[in-house]
């Protein structure tokens, strides 16, 4: 054989593509697409007949790439979402593609762009899109969790003005809202406390359950039928194993089966509806390769014609005009990232537009093949194998690459990771282990309770398969994955310490208990499902299970070289998960490498961070598995790698403290009645929002009543506490808008919690070096949390109220949480004169308040 092809520059695999994600405008006059601007992916627009080089810049994001966008139904605007630093608190933006740049004139490449409007303009809020009705193209229906972080209220948002109208206040734990084709709210989805899922009919005075499936089943609305009465759903309720397309009548509850996989192999993948007629035109199934079954002869004829013109490629219709006479299609495959064409259905003509990653040498890419092997209990595991091109598939170094989720799956096609590692000489196996989706309910549910056990066996037996086939050298096998794949990587080296010889964990949890404790509030609907498929941490048996399956608890067994990669702002798997395992290995003298990107969340979005990570990863794997690697990189990437590389010796996490052992600090003073006003501002993502904050302390006889009021552009927020005189312990707390029921066993007394907390701190015997620990209650997660207080020193502080000699008091989590504040307490009056608080739930936003005269 001729030997491995030349090394493919990692920039070509993981850098920004020259052009990507093109979408055709509804009238067919324009194409919008993503292209780098100042080394960050942004939105550009061109007329159909223009070359891509003549496109106009629409956005000027430089901190993080635009993740995705869409045309509004009338084509007047392009809408997109963005968060801050990977915190997943998304806001919705709109830009007028016909507008001129801010500096005047058309935006030339490298020039300015028209102004984008932030349509939601909320901090620490995750916006969800529910519907964009055809009947009113200026309207979208969105969900906002500004009132209650766990549940989204339903709003109508007018794109042209940004006007928001509350449609439904979500006090019923609704996870999703479903509209019919005319834009009428018809259905909702709810997850019960048991984890069972309900499809509800929305009535004028409430909800009526019409279809329910248990926690281990699927029942999801897809789209209303064009008759306006029935709704297409996908379901595997009851005796069904494979997810099936069906029609449900909300009025009667009657269910009619439409189709399940004709080959009886896999779940329904998706249903394709005509944008022009709303008719079902095809069903799609993801087997070893994708299969389609057409319901419309004209669609099928055009599709088959495209397959003949573009042989050996998978064809996807990316977008179309409103009348569907023009399609923007992608032709792609395992060795083709994608060729984009404009297809005129009337004239049956194809106009080439661009290649994704045009400079990538296709001749050096390696084919991907579907394989199957048996696991420890005989269960057949579907997987994809990519072998290095140009060498015999014998005694190769190999990588098990584990997908995230875990309730997801890998599919056949171009995969940058598979190509990267195959080019470096590795055999790459990507198993769809039990618990993966797409292969039926039995296969999915076979993963219940099997984290770190049979799910891990499915990977272990993948290693055995590669060795038995002679493909892999058993002494040169590594494992790599992100999210759940990162967990599986850690579990692999902790529970099967002799199996792997190098491992890379990317944003993977090391401790399943702390993983579940840190579930973001907006995942509340999924919490019970995770408990059911994993274990309930609130039960003794569940807690024991989670401890046993946590790689952290077996870190002493790890003897495999390990690299850990983490995003500092990850709201799902927070940095504690990475740093716990790094510290555990470091403290026993075992070498571990650690990368931490300060501007990333759950997975890396910025190409420079990805390139830096893979620069480190390929050299790390080569050192232990004897694969190839590319020396060096651009100055920017090399510099970035230095910035995100962390010396494990410097990693520190607050030690876990048992809340039951924490008492109440003794105060040496009492509160004083009065009204205290502060000038405040919230800083996030380089933007500032002005606030007004006031604290009123009233003498209620035997108790103190403290009311904290914050005036924001979105309205006022009130927090009221009742404090016991003498001890200043919390007796009662009420937060305006707190309709969410709270049920928690505090198992003790809380202190310096809620309104007036900083004034309570001022009543402690503060002195330089003073420290104490006390209990708070986390309203969002409904759990006790511990706070650590330390007087860091004395400072002279100048605020609008004057200059004060003050104690600098540092507050932080005593149990590893993200809370962090600094309060300056005037020594004479014990009044908080300045406050600086990091809002971890708002992506690291900083709230600063200064005392007014």
Mass-distribution shape? globular
Helical segment count: 13
Helix content: 10-25%
Strand order of the largest sheet: 41-40-39-38-37-47-46-45-44-43-42
Rounded mean pLDDT score: 90
Helix-strand category? alpha+beta
As residue ranges, the low-confidence spans are: 103-110, 738-743
Q: Biggest β-sheet: count, sense, barrel?
A: 11 strands, antiparallel
Number of strands: 47
Spatial separation of the terminal alpha carbons: 82 Å
Kindly provide the radius of gyration, computed on alpha-carbon positions and rounded to a whole number of angstroms.
29 Å
Percentage of residues in strands: 35-45%
Question: Which features would summarize this protein structure in a list?
Answer:
15% helix; globular; 13 helices; alpha+beta; 38% strand; 853 residues
Can you give a write-up of this model?
With 853 residues, the chain is α+β, with helices and mostly antiparallel strands. The protein contains 13 helices and 47 strands. The chain has an eleven-stranded antiparallel β-sheet. The protein has a nine-stranded mixed β-sheet with strand order 28-29-31-30-32-33-34-35-36, with helices on both faces. Strand 40 (715-724) and strand 41 form a beta hairpin. Helix 11 (607-625) packs across helix 12. The longest helix has 19 residues, at 607-625. The radius of gyration is 29 Å and the shape is globular. The protein starts with 9 loop residues before the first helix and ends with a strand. Mean pLDDT is 90; it is low at 103-110 and 738-743.
């Amino acid at each position: 054989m001729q030997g491995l092809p030349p090394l493919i520059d990692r920039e070509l695999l993981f850098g920004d593509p020259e052009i990507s994600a093109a979408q055709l405008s509804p009238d067919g006059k324009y194409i919008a697409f993503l292209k780098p601007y100042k080394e960050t992916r942004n939105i550009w627009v061109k007329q159909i007949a223009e070359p891509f080089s003549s496109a106009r810049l629409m956005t000027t994001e430089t901190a993080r790439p635009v993740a995705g966008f869409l045309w509004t139904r009338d084509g007047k605007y392009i809408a997109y979402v963005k968060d801050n630093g990977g915190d997943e608190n998304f806001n919705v933006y709109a830009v007028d593609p016909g507008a001129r740049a801010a500096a005047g004139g058309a935006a030339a490449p490298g020039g300015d762009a028209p102004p984008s409007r932030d349509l939601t303009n909320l901090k620490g809020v995750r916006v969800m899109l529910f519907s964009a009705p055809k009947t009113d193209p200026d309207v979208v229906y969105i969900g906002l969790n500004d009132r209650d972080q766990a549940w989204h209220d339903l709003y109508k948002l007018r794109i042209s003005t940004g006007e928001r109208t509350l449609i439904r206040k979500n006090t019923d734990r609704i996870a999703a809202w479903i509209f019919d084709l005319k834009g009428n709210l018809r259905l909702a989805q709810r997850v019960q406390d048991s984890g069972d899922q309900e499809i509800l009919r929305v009535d004028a005075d409430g909800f009526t359950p019409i279809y329910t499936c248990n926690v281990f089943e699927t029942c999801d609305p897809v789209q209303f039928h064009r008759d306006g009465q029935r709704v297409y759903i996908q379901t595997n309720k009851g005796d069904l194993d494979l997810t099936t397309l069906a029609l449900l009548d909300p009025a009667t509850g009657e269910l009619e089966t439409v189709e399940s996989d004709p080959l009886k192999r896999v779940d329904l993948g998706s249903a394709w509806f005509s944008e022009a007629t709303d008719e079902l035109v095809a069903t799609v199934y993801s087997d070893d390769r994708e299969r389609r079954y057409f319901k419309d002869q004209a669609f099928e004829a055009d599709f088959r014609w495209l397959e003949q013109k573009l042989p050996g490629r998978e064809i996807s219709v990316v977008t179309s005009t409103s009348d569907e006479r023009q399609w923007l299609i992608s032709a792609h495959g395992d060795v083709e990232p994608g060729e984009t064409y404009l297809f005129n259905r009337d004239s049956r003509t194809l106009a080439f537009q661009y290649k994704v990653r045009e400079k990538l040498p296709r001749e050096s890419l390696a084919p991907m093949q579907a394989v199957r092997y048996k696991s420890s209990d005989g269960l057949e595991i579907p997987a994809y194998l990519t072998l290095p091109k140009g060498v015999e598939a014998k005694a190769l170094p190999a990588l098990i690459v584990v997908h995230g989720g875990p309730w997801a799956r890998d599919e056949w096609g171009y995969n940058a990771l598979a190509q990267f590692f195959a080019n470096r000489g590795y055999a790459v196996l990507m198993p769809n282990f039990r618990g993966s989706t797409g292969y039926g309910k039995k296969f999915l549910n076979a993963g219940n309770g099997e984290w770190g056990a049979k799910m891990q066996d499915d990977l272990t037996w993948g290693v055995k398969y590669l060795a038995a086939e002679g493909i892999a050298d058993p002494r040169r096998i590594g494992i790599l994955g992100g999210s759940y794949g990162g967990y599986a990587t850690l579990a692999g080296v902790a529970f099967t310490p002799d199996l792997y010889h190098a491992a890379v964990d990317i944003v993977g949890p090391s401790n399943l208990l702390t993983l579940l404790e840190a579930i973001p509030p907006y995942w509340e609907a999924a919490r019970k499902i995770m408990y059911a498929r994993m274990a309930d941490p609130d039960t003794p048996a569940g807690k024991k299970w989670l401890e046993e399956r946590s790689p952290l608890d077996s870190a002493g067994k790890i003897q495999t070289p390990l690299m850990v990669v983490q995003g500092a702002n990850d709201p799902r798997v927070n940095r504690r998960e990475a740093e716990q395992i790094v510290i555990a290995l470091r403290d026993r003298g075992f070498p571990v490498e650690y990368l931490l990107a300060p501007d990333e969340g759950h997975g890396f979005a910025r190409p420079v961070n990805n390139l830096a990570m893979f620069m480190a990863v390929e050299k790390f794997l080569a050192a232990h598995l004897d694969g190839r690697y590319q020396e060096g990189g651009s100055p920017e990437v090399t510099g970035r790698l230095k910035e995100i590389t962390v010396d494990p010796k410097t990693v520190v996490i607050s030690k876990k403290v048992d809340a039951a052992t924490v008492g109440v600090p003794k105060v040496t003073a009492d509160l004083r009645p009065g009204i205290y006003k502060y000038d405040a501002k919230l800083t996030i993502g380089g933007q500032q929002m002005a606030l007004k904050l006031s604290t009123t302390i009233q003498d209620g006889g035997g108790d103190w009543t403290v009311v904290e009021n914050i005036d924001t552009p979105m309205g006022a927020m009130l927090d009221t506490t009742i404090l016991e005189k003498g001890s200043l312990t919390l007796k009662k707390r009420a937060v305006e808008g707190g309709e969410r029921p709270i049920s928690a066993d505090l198992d003790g007394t809380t202190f310096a919690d809620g309104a007036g907390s900083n004034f309570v701190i001022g009543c402690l015997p503060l002195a330089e070096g003073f420290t104490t620990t006390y209990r708070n209650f986390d309203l969002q997660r409904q759990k006790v949390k511990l706070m650590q207080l330390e007087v860091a020193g004395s400072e002279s502080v100048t605020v609008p109220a004057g200059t004060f000699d003050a104690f600098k008091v540092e507050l932080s989590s005593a149990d590893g949480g993200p809370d962090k504040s600094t309060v300056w307490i005037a020594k004479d009056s014990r009044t908080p004169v300045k406050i600086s608080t990091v809002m971890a739930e708002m992506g690291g936003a900083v709230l600063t308040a200064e005392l007014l005269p």
